[in-house]
Amino acid sequence: MSDSTTGAGVAIELRGVTKRFAGQRVPAVDNVDLTIPAGEIVMLVGPSGCGKTTTMRMINRLIEPTSGEILIGGEDVRKKEPNALRRHIGYVIQAGGLFPHMSVAENIGLVPRMLKWGPTKTAERVKAMLDLVGLEPGQYADRYPRQLSGGQQQRVGVARALAADPPVLLMDEPFGAVDPITRAHLQDELLSLQDELSKTIVFVTHDFDEAVKLGDRIAILTTGSTIVQYDEPAAILANPANDFVRGFIGAGGAMKLLNVTRLADIELADIVVASRDEPAEEVRRRVARSHTPWAVVLDANQRPDRWLSAETLEDLRGEIGDAGDKVHTTINGRATVREALEALLKSDANWVPVTVRRKYVGSVTLETVQQAIGRLRERAKGLGRPR
Ligand SMILES: Nc1ncnc2c1ncn2[C@@H]1O[C@H](COP(=O)(O)OP(=O)(O)OP(=O)(O)O)[C@@H](O)[C@H]1O
Question: ipTM of this model?
Answer without folding.
Answer: 0.95
